Structure formats: C-alpha cells, structure tokens
Amino acid sequence: MHRALLIDEILQLIFDHCASLPINESRRTLYQLARCCKAWKDPALDRLWARIDSSAPLLSLLPCVDDKDMPISDIDPIFTSYACRVKEITYRDVQKPTSADSLEMVLPRLQAVTISHGGCFVPSSWKVSPHLKHISLNIGLVHVVRRDEVAKCNSAEELLKRVHVSSLRSLRFRGHLTPAIGNMVASFTQLTDLTLYTHRVDCEWLAAIAKFPNLRSLSTSAMSIDPEELEHALAQTTAPCFPALESLDLGGPVATLGVAFKYMPDHKLTRFRMEADCYRHGPASFERFLEQLAKKTFKSLKELTIQDLTEYYWLEPPMRDQMPPEWFGLSLLHPLAACKDLRKLELTLMIPPSISDTDLETLGNWWPHLEDLNLGTHDMPYLPRDWQFLMTPAALEAVAKHLPRLQQLALPFRPADLLASGGRPTPSESKPQHKTLRALAIGDVSNASACASDLVRAILAVFPSLDTLDCPAQEITEQFAVLTGSA
C-alpha cells in the first residue's frame, strides 16, 4: 500500500470522491473497497450506508415479529452498527413490525428523510434524530379525505411533533394541510427552505411564513388567497417580511402576487417562478406586476419563469379573434429589460409568445448574460391548424448572432421549415455558428423518418457543440445520437 494512503485526510478524500460517483458505480466501488482490507472497511461502509433508498437493507438484519413490544435487548448489535451509519433514507412502503420499533430512535445520525405513500405509516422512531435537517413528506393530494388520508395526516402530525426544531432546515410537504400541521409548520421559524403543495393556503399562514428570518427558498400557492385579505395580514406584521428570501415559486392571481412583492425587500430575490391564473382577456394585467417585479429585483434577479396555462380556445373576444393574439410580446416584457443580469428566462405558455425572429436581437441587448432561453416549442395540438407562428428557422441564426452566451434554448418554430421544398437544408452563404449552446428543444416533426438526417445536419450547422437535442419525434433524437457519436 502506498504510504500516502496511510494519511487519513487523503484516504477520506478518496472515499468521498468514490461516494460522489453515479449511484450504481459508487455503491459497487465502495462495496469493493470495504472488502479490500480492515483499514478501509469502516470508511467504505460509512459511505455505502449513508444513503439508502428503503429500510429493506436494515430490516434484513432484524427478525420480523408480530409483537412490537419485543425486548430491546433482542436487537442484534450488527443492526445497531449499520443503523448508526444511515444519514439519508426513503420510505415508500409499509414495513412489518420489528423489535427496533420500540426504540426511542432507530437511526441516531439521520439527517434527511423522504416519506411517501405507505411510508407514512412507518413508526416515527425510524424517522427522527437530533441531526435531522431535511424532511420531504408526501401524504397525497386528494379532494375527499378518507380514513386512509386521515391516518396519514395523523402520522405526519406525530412526526412533526417529534422533530428537533432547532436542527430542521428544510421541509417539503405535499398533501392535505390540517390545522395542526399548518400550525406546526408555522412554528418552524428556523427553516431556510420550505415547499408546501396543498389545496388551500390561507393568508394568515402565509403572513406567518413571511416572518421567518432565515427563509431563503419558498415554494407554495396563493391561488385561494384574496389580495385584500393578504394586504391586511401582512400589514399587521411588525417584523420585516421575507427578509432573507432569494428563491420564490409562487402561484396565484397577479393581484395577490403584487401584494406579496409589495412587502418584500428590494434586490434580494435572485430566482422567481410564477404560476398565473388563467386570463381569458389576455395578459395585459401582467404589465403592472412586471413593472413592480423589475423595480424590486433589477439588481438581483437571475432566473425568471412565467407559467400561464390559458389555452387559445378559452379566450374571449376580441382577443380570440386575433390570429395569433398578442401574447407576452416585447411591449409586455419591456420592464424586465432593467434586469441586466438575467441568466434564465422561461415562458411556459399554452399560447406561443408574440416574439419574432428580429425580436431576438432586442432580447440579446436587454440581457447580454442570458444562458437559458425557453420560449416553448411548436406544439400544434393546443392550437388551430392555421396558426401563424411568428418565428421561423431564421431565429436560430438570430440566436447565433445576438445571444452568444446561451447554453440552453427552446423556440416555437416549425422544425420542418429548416428544410427547403426539396427536403434538403435551406442554403445559406454565410450562416453564423453558435458554439456555446449545449441543449436545444424543438417541436414535433411530421414524417420525421424521411427527413431526420437532413434536419439534424441543418441544426448542427448552426450549433456544432450541441450535446442534447430534445424532440417528440424519436427518429430525430436517434439520428442526432448517430451523427454526434452519442449513441
């Protein structure tokens, strides 16, 4: 053995690297290292057992019993030695009673637990420790709360009651929010990361969360919150609202979002994802909010995602009479031009945005550091057959000229238009190239098997460094893999 491997710090670094490999390779490597020699056994096993996808490996070390009150003295010391190594675990299924259930704490070094479905019924002694920092709890979103859902809620309440509040940093909850669970979550003021997906969040709860002094990331929905009620609730708070918030994922009416932003500190938010309500008369109501967003974040915002699921067939006249309607065009987005450090813009829309090939130059001037631009793709099932797309294949060359830092891209144009009527790539004397783009998403292609090779070659002519091409047509992605050697 090389003398360098006798230095513990070096050995630990090597084992840490092995643990960071892709999961299957990591486990295979650590298993082999654990069998090499006694000196390597413990550090390899520590990492091999640090994260397990279920309790099955541990349960295999225990006899399953019908009597949950079996004496603790019957627990095998080997089980205890391995249980002490577990730092992350996932529970998805109900587990049979074991002698370890009567322990106050089964996994004393547990730091993160993920619970869903039948895993909700695993005894809480398997889910808590003084070191627990992260909880992900999915008890299911249902419209009718039946006996099984009530039992899951009770189990969740029991778990949250036993959590060491001072150590918990991250909580992700999905399911029916009982008053008891809501009150407990509102008491976890030390959280830095909170995700809550439930049918209804009230303004008092959101106002309580707003006072968390260290909350850096929040993801929830305000769809059911009245803007006037939220204004009243936030106005009553004496502490600053959202003082440390950097990442926000919030859905709701634009007016409600505007109230929340009114009470946020200036230039703190770096990432914002909004899910808007449906707007049958068009997105003009966004204008005031986007102005407010820009004023609050123009020095800090780096990532912006706007999701609006309004479908064309839901629009009211005269908006529906337009083909295509004015939808998230430059005039609406213009206030965001002040956010000069924007790195990602994603418009998740059912109606393509009113952005043309020539508008891409404007986007490049607004956001010179943009690395990820997603304007959607050509998806006809949601649109009339005679829909006139504003973007053409010339958009790809416009990207190459005016958005040089892009690494990911999705644009709404007809991919087949990249080919001339003869089925060959459209000729171009001086086609610019974009050598930093790594991922491109395009819409579906009819009769893809006949044109796959030419279409992929036309794309690679503009983006020679492309690593990933996402397309619903499997023939296109397969041909891309062949031509780029990634097959």
Describe the fold and architecture.
The protein is an alpha/beta fold and 487 residues long. Helix content is 32%, strand content 14%. It has helices at residues 8-19, 23-34, 38-48, 56-59, 77-83, 147-162, 179-187, 203-209, 227-235, 254-262, 286-297, 330-333, 359-366, 394-402, 448-462, 474-484, and strands at 51-52, 88-91, 112-116, 134-140, 170-175, 193-197, 217-221, 247-252, 271-276, 303-308, 344-349, 372-374, 408-410, 439-441, 468-470. It has a 15-stranded parallel β-sheet with strand order 1-2-3-4-5-6-7-8-9-10-11-12-13-14-15. It is globular and about 75 Å long. It starts with 7 loop residues before the first helix and ends with a helix. The mean pLDDT is 88.
TL;DR?
With 487 residues, this protein is an alpha/beta fold. Helices cover 32% and strands 14% of the residues. Strands 1-2-3-4-5-6-7-8-9-10-11-12-13-14-15 form a 15-stranded parallel beta sheet.
Percentage of helical residues? 25-40%
Question: Shape from CA axes?
Answer: globular
Number of strands: 15
Low-confidence stretches: none
Core attributes:
single chain, 487 residues, alpha/beta
Question: In terms of topology, how is this protein built?
Answer:
Elements: H1 8-19, H2 23-34, H3 38-48, E1 51-52, H4 56-59, H5 77-83, E2 88-91, E3 112-116, E4 134-140, H6 147-162, E5 170-175, H7 179-187, E6 193-197, H8 203-209, E7 217-221, H9 227-235, E8 247-252, H10 254-262, E9 271-276, H11 286-297, E10 303-308, H12 330-333, E11 344-349, H13 359-366, E12 372-374, H14 394-402, E13 408-410, E14 439-441, H15 448-462, E15 468-470, H16 474-484
Parallel strand pairs: 1-2, 2-3, 3-4, 4-5, 5-6, 6-7, 7-8, 8-9, 9-10, 10-11, 11-12, 12-13, 13-14, 14-15
Helix pairs in contact: 1-3, 2-3, 6-7, 8-9, 9-10, 10-11, 13-14, 15-16
